[in-house]
Amino acid sequence: MLELLLGGLGSVITPVAILAIVGGVVLGILVGAMPGLSPSMGVALLVPFTYGMSPLLALILLVAIYIGASYGGSITAITINAPGTASAVATALDGYVMTTQGRAATALGLSIVVSSVAGILGTIILIFFSVPLAAVAVGFHPAEYFAMSVFGLATIASMAGENWMKAFTAALLGLLLNTVGTDPISGAERFTFDVTPLSDGFLLIPALIGLFALSEVFTGIEKRAFKVARLDSMGSQWPSFRDYWRLKYLTLRSTLIGTLIGIFPGAGATIASFISYDIAKRLSRKPEDFGKGSSEGVAAAEAANSGSVGGAMVPLLTLGIPGSATTAVLIGAMMIHRLTPGPQLFISDPGLIYGIFAAMLLANLVLLGVGLAGSRLWIKVTVIPKEVLFTLVTMMAVVGSYAVRNSMFDVLCCLGFGILGWILRRYDYPLAPVILGMVLGSIAETNFRRAIMMDSATVFFTRPVSATMLALGLASFILPFLAIRRARRRAARSDAIR
Amino acid sequence: MRFAPTLLALVLSLTAAALPPPASAAGEILDRPLPDAGDFPRQPIRIIVYTSPGGLIDFTARRFADIARRHAPEQPFVVINRPGGGGIVAFEEVLQQPADGYHMLAVTRSNISKMIATGRDDLIDRVDWHSYIMENAHVIITNARIGKQSWRDVYEDALRSGDRQIWLGADIGGVKHVSGVKMARQAGMEMRWIPYSSGGEAMAALMGGLGAVYLGNPRDAMISDDLRIVAVGASRRLPAFPDAPTFSELGVPGLENEHIWRGFAFRQGVPEERRAWFAALIEKVSNDPEWIETWAGEGVELEYRDSERFNRMVERDVEEFSFYLREMGLLREPGTRETLLAGIGEAPALQFFQVLLVVINLVLAFVLLQSSFRDRLGELMVLSVVLSLALLFFVMTEALPPPSPVDTVGARGVPRLWLFVLLPLALYQVFLILRQRRKGGGKPKKKPLLLFTSLGFMTSYVLLVPVLGYLLASAIYMPALLWLLNYRHPVIIVVLTGAWLTFSYFIFQRVLFVDLPAGTLLARLPFG
Fold first, then answer.
1. With a cut of 0.90, is the ipTM above it?
2. Which residue from B203, B219, B517 is facing A321, i.e. has the nearest CB?
3. Bond prior to B401 in cis (omega within 30° of 0)
4. Domain range holding A310?
5. Could you tell me if A64 and A72 are in contact, meaning their C-beta atoms sit under 8 angstroms apart?
């Protein structure tokens, strides 16, 4: 295997391949950072440009874009609270708070270094364990997918703390909004009010831009928060090696979570980042800092997000099955280059497979270099006069949500979600649970119904993995309440003593 | 005389080289210039695909675009994905565009079944089914690792399992589901159809041993040695999979034409010379050696069929799907719901209910403003709107198809589950607020006038974009908002606006082929 990997490295250490990796990573970062453009759109847009390339070079370029775009979403999440992708929402929870505290450099530095390290670790897991992991992924019963989504939803309990009622209301709102559109199983239209574009439901990207970016603008205008932080006070706060080293176990654990959840087709980076964030909070010595600018929170979310790229490549390369929207486009690109992804490709063209592995390792190193250099540039976003920034964000929101499917309806939806987000913020409802509900809603529903169609309602408890995950979900739901109760009692007791 | 055969061969080959090659039909088509269509095309031609990037129809469209570019080098072909509603979103988008031939739909047989199943068969009549380009048979694929090596294994397992044998595939009421039902019926067995959102996910489930068979396309079986095509829904064996028997060979009649086709369609009314231009182009691509090579070994049958033949096929498919979907109980018959709530769930009673909820909320807001809960108005109104929305959705679930033997939870099950949790949770929060005595002394929040004005600006902008066009509307809105936010640097405002407009035009319109709205007003002007 090592020989093959070295052979792969040899085939990617050529001027053209390195140029493709650097170009792909830069382009990917820009795509990911632009609200409205997703990693899958970025890869799809570049596919026609690869027709004249060799299959390996084409895949190197596309994989580099995927890696760049998966990270790019965190830049706008941290700097302007506009996560470019749903998986960057968990990053925004602490990343943007850090920016408002004048610690944007710390958040940006952490996100890029942790992303690259997690990307490399995820690729190593892909290289050495892809075959056994793929076997686990395909054997996952719908009941287990449902249990995993319940586990994901249960993270809201610990995310919300004392504010749990509002957090659950927000999540239920997200789950309910997710049911608008064509029913994924029967094909019946639900709650569409005869509006054709709603037959596909509320699209995630306009919702994401509206809920986070626009609501931030509206809140800023309401509070007339036009004061700009001074760049020189932020410049000195780049994390040191010691800061990164302190987070080594957390990064490793979160990468593992990201890669493992990434292997399940359809589950992906969003669940991974939230579960990883939740576990990091539970195991942290300072759980109270989460949501208030915790560097651990940023690292946990980013490591899982980047780790999931390696995970999503497992079913693609070993079985020819897409693990995410972007890997579905990669399958299309492979078909265009007359390649049939799957186990046979390992036998017929190992040079290509190990070339991709080597390119992934190299792309993460390039990401580190480009990202660190770029962070010096991204941080300048925070010193743009707020009036200008707010205006630019609304312009980006309009064109970004329109670009998803050339529809002004999506722009109106984005505006609607912006107003909804502003109202929810105004009355202390957290926004992340709405997105979590919208993302997990369809996974939970389709797998719940599929599981019952395959077996019966008892299947959730008779399958050990599903039963265990549901129990874990229940525990993760109840434990924060017990902790709150205990804290209240303790506070009451200390008040009584005083 | 041992050299005689060599000499003969040499003479024959020299003669052959001297003579012009026999003109094949394909060669003739490829050499023929495209018919004159005036100044068409003057701009990029959009191929609208109804799925997300990555599916087989997306691949077909992209490969087509690539090869078509060479035969019509004047303008690029751009593939645009418009997923949603099994094709409804894509069809609607093309139908909203002018009938000028710049928006082409990549279509499949699946669109027909989906439109009928969802009651949108009007869309079938509103498009021009222009060119049929290929089809592939539906095949039954098994996983040899779980002991199903042949159709006999599948059949015997079905007899043992009763109605519990699981067939994996795509959505309910889709073209593959209909084929699956026909196959099981003709074979005299029962099965449970488990729908997955994509073929890839269903394949993963098959490889994980979660189902007995997967009904899909022949190329799906190529990804692993464990996968076997055990039955083919065609009249003869597929050249790319010569070992796979047809249903007729297996003694199951009436399944010689189970397939999915792919082709292109336009909005009705595209000028005849442009239709002829496309017909010639599509025929050229269909005969292009690279196109043929692309599909070699994939179990796909390539054949160009013109609009007339294609329309006849579509008509037959409409009849067939209407019949089977009705038989399967998947066509909604009018007048089958009798409950009071179902009555409300239908328009116009539903519209009345919506108006009623709005009025109740307005009255409530007015009452709260006069009450001692004035400082909690916002919180209470948020909960009131959430409760109203929940009630509205609950009533609307009555109009959804009820659970069926195939889908025992049904389309209404899960939304109701969320509503049953949301309603008491929101009510409890209202109760908590009402229980708290008014604290008093708290400063009422300032009225966010600047925000409301900005929101007014933004809403007007969004509404004006389709009328004035993106560029003009943005050129007005951007400086106006900056000025409103008290940013008084005219030069920077002008530079910033110019820079944004240039950036968005070049990046979105020119690089990403996002059709930024041109504006209906400008189009009506003489120079528009």
1. no
2. B203
3. no
4. 2-497
5. no
Q: Extract the tokens encoding A10.
A: 């040899």
Rounded to whole angstroms, the Cα distance separating B415 from A449 reads: 12
Which residues of chain A make contact with B79, given a CB cutoff of 8 A? 48
Within an 8 Å CB–CB cutoff, is residue B455 touching chain A?
A: yes
Count residue pairs from A and B with Cβ separation < 8 A: 294
Contact across the interface for B223 and A183, Cβ inside 8 Å: no
Q: Do A45 and B389 make contact, defined as CB atoms within 8 angstroms?
A: no
Domain extents in chain B: 42-134+260-305, 139-257, 340-435, 449-524
Q: Quick check: A387 and B482 CB within 8 A?
A: yes
Nearest-angstrom CA–CA distance, A138 and A143: 13
For residue A328, how many C-alpha atoms fall within 13 Å in the half-sphere facing its CB? Answer: 21
Q: How far apart are CA B88 and CA A197, in angstroms?
A: 9
Q: Are B365 and B383 in contact (CB under 8 A)?
A: no
CB spacing of A265 vs B204 below 8 angstroms:
yes
Of A176, A336, A342, the CB nearest to B393: A176
- Residue A135's pLDDT band (cuts 50, 70, 90): confident
> Of B118, B223, B516, which is closest to A340 when you measure between CB atoms?
B223
User: B223–A226: do the CB atoms touch at under 8 Å?
Assistant: no
pLDDT tens digit string along A147-177? Answer: 988 988 888 887 777 788 899 999 999 999 9
Amino acid residing at B90: A
Q: Does B92 touch chain A (CB under 8 A)?
A: yes
Nearest CA in chain B to A390: B482
- DSSP one-letter code for A131: H
Cβ atoms of A41 and B82 closer than 8 Å: no
pLDDT tens readout for residues B96-113: 888 999 999 999 999 999
Scanning B479-518 for CB atoms below 8 A from A yields 481-482, 485-487, 492, 496, 500, 504, 508, 512, 514-517
d(CA A366, CA B258): 50
Domain B139-257 belongs to what topology? D-Maltodextrin-Binding Protein; domain 2 (3.40.190)
* Structural domains in chain A (count): 1
* Chain A residues closer than 8 Å to B406 by CB: 453
Does the distance separating the beta carbons of A332 and B62 come in below 8 Å? yes
Residue A465 touches chain B, beta carbons under 8 Å: no
- Please give the residue that has the higher pLDDT: either A368 or B2: A368
Alpha-carbon gap, residue A412 to A448, rounded angstroms: 32
pLDDT above 70 (res A446): yes
Residues A35, A400: contact at Cβ < 8 Å? yes
Summarize pLDDT for A392-444 with one digit per residue, the tens. Answer: 999 999 998 898 878 899 999 999 999 999 999 999 999 989 988 998 888 89
Q: If we measure between CA atoms, which residue out of B261, B263, B258, B260 comes closest to residue B248?
A: B258
Phi, psi of B265 (to 5 degrees): -140, 160
- Is there a shared CATH topology between the B42-134+260-305 domain and the B139-257 domain? yes
Residues of chain B with Cβ-Cβ distance to A45 below 8 Å are 512
| pLDDT tens for each residue of B173-195 | 889 999 999 999 999 999 999 98
Assigned fold of B42-134+260-305: D-Maltodextrin-Binding Protein; domain 2 (3.40.190)
- The Cα–Cα gap between B200 and B179 comes to 19
DSSP β-ladder status, B192-195 and B300-305:
unpaired
If contacts are CB pairs under 8 Å, which of residues 38-77 in chain A contact chain B?
A: 40-41, 43-45, 47-48, 51
Residue B19's pLDDT band, with cuts at 50, 70 and 90, is: very low
Which residues partner with B79 through β-bridges?
A: B47
Residues present in chain B in total: 528
Q: Tell whether B457 lies on the interface with A, counting CB pairs under 8 A.
A: no
In 3D space, the residue among B324, B49, B285 whose CA is nearest the CA of residue B186 turns out to be: B324
